[in-house]
Amino acid sequence: MNLRRSSVFAALLVAGCDEGAVVTVESVGHAERGRHVLEQFECGACHRIPGVRGPQGRVGPSLAHFGQRAYVAGHFKNSPEVVVRWILDPPSMKPATAMPNLGLTESQARDVAAYLHSLE
Ligand code: HEC
To answer: Average pLDDT over the chain, rounded to whole?
Structure first.
């Protein structure tokens, strides 16, 4: 990802708006790094995630075909920005959710979003 796009994305996150600029799957983060982040944080303890080593838990929904999913957590329209927000702090979006805040940095969450959106 080039720096200019990344700072546009950061500005979007800070401003909390999506006027005009579109964050694409390619610009949100780096999918291959995201795969390592998924392994490092053991997201597989609760999710089945194709291509990620480790456990394949059943507590949360399978993340197979995530790139084609219409909604995140059954409620929020699926887009790279929404997935980043979700991964950073699920309870802030859906207080009753069973998915905890796992303490990823924004950059880690962006890379994970890129990986998950690459799952066709
Ligand atoms: C303790 C179990 C647990 C862990 C660990 C966990 N999740 Fe989740 N996750 C859930 C649950 C439960 C849901 C369903 C949330 C809901 O609908 O309220 C969920 C939902 C999601 C969703 C939305 C899926 C969908 O189909 O809408 C994504 C994306 C996601 N998790 C990513 C991650 C990532 C990335 C990690 C690791 C950083 C992770 N999760 C770790 C339990 C977990």
So the answer is: 88
